[in-house]
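[audit] Reproducing an earlier prediction to check determinism. Same input, same settings, fresh worker. If the tokens differ from the archived copy the diff job will pick it up downstream; this log only records the rerun itself.
[audit] input (184 residues):
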Amino acid sequence: MALLNWLGMGKKGEKVTVVKVKEESIHQGEMASSSPSAAVAAMARIVDQKTATTKILVVEDGRTYSETVTEYALKMAQRLDCEIIALDTSVAPLKFTGERRDTETAAFFDTAERSVRRFAAKAEKMGITLSHMMELGDQEEVIARMSSQDAGIRYVLTEPEVSTVHEEGHVAHVPVFDLACSRL
């Protein structure tokens, strides 16, 4: 059956779209420039990427982690010997002010804490290290900041948008982004 699936003739399952970004490198212009600080910073980042534990950042907005994303992240982490960071982030509570903002923020953190429990239990059962982070803010900004602070974050896996789930053949494309820190 695996061969049939590989050939595309087996049961139509869920597929994953992987977007690869080039490995970070130092350009000759940076090395030859009169300001070597850019080259030194780039070299430090490359060294950090090579020595850091590889991590998969699984992003959700406080809702329950879907079975598709959970299973894919766990299999990927197991296969690549990676750690997982489950990140819940949202801007929804920030749209309010005063007491309503406090209520919405508390509800977000409570829902996020409950939603990751099943994911964490499965990861523990498989021997995969999973940490959970919750942060209010724009999803892209939070991801960019986290990946710049933690050189080990290599992949970003997000829930597929409703518009990207194809009804034809019941195929869901789970976006996986390979950050510019290839070391595998």
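[audit] rerun output stored. Observation attached for the diff report: Residues 98-115 form the longest helix (18 residues).
[audit] end
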